Structure formats: C-alpha cells, structure tokens
Amino acid sequence: MQTDKQSVSKEEREELVKRLTPLQYRVTQHKITERPFTGEYLKLNDNGLYCCVVCGEEIFSSESKYESGCGWPAFDGVINNDKVKHNIDLSHVGSNLLLLALRSDVARTEVSCARCGAHLGHVFDDGPKTTGKRYCVPRRPKTVAQKYDKQRPHL
Ligand SMILES: [Zn+2]
C-alpha cells in the first residue's frame, strides 16, 4: 500500500538501509540538512557529473557549480529540468502560519530526484545572473549526489 507515487516499498527501503550510510539515508529519505562547510566536495572543482546517490541519475554538471558562500555546494542549474522535481517546502516554518501569511518568501523550494524521489536540496532565486538560480545541495562524503566520476565526459 503506497500513500504517494514516490513512496518506496518495504523491500526497497530495506535495500536502501543496507546500501546507504545512515547519513545518506536520513538526508535522501527524511530530508535532513547536513551542517554547512562539512562536505569534502565543497571545494572540488574537477570536471564531472554529480549523480543521485540513490538511483545514479545524473543531476548536476561541474560546469554549473559555483562558489556561493552558503556552505554547501551550489549549482546554477541542473543538467536537464526533467531530472528534478520542485516542491514547496514549509517544514522549517512549522505551525507558524502567521509568519507564512506575513512573509510568503519564507517558503522554500525543495529539489528532489525526478526518478526516485530522493531529497537533493533546495533551490533559491539568488543565483548568478546566467540563470538566477542557486541549487543548494547538501553534500558531505557519501551523502546526496556523492557519486562523482572524473572519468565520465562532462556535458
Ligand atoms: Zn534518484
């Protein structure tokens, strides 16, 4: 019995628990955000593709990576808009609906993998001029979009 189209089956969940580290699992499946400035790939500038750690889908290219100063790797776009889904995220607002009514800009946009539904991060509208977008992706060793292969040709 599935409550939404992207929920994973019990078997898939057990497989993910075995395959992913506890932190990877919590980030991708429960949308926790890792602490800023902790990812080993934060300052990595080699050419390559950043893939979904759950299903392997190629999401970001190093060509769109830039230094935003936010403490997490940032990209100004995805390889293809079909690769991700955008969802309104009000989890940080909690039950403070008055705050939401007064400041609609507090609503964040969550980015998830279109193929498997894994949480990837958030997107903001304060990116560089080329796209105006800032995809902020939690990324510490072996968490979201951790798979990184220098051998692959970049787009
Ligand atoms: Zn995925």
TrEMBL record:
It is an enzyme of class 1 (oxidoreductase). It comes from the Eukaryota. It holds the Pfam family SelR. One of its GO terms (cellular component) is cytoplasm. Belongs to the MsrB Met sulfoxide reductase family. The keyword Transcription does not apply. This is Peptide-methionine (R)-S-oxide reductase. PROSITE patterns: MSRB (PS51790). Its cofactor is Zn(2+). InterPro entries: Met_Sox_Rdtase_MsrB, Met_Sox_Rdtase_MsrB_dom, Mss4-like_sf. Keywords: Metal-binding, Oxidoreductase, Zinc.
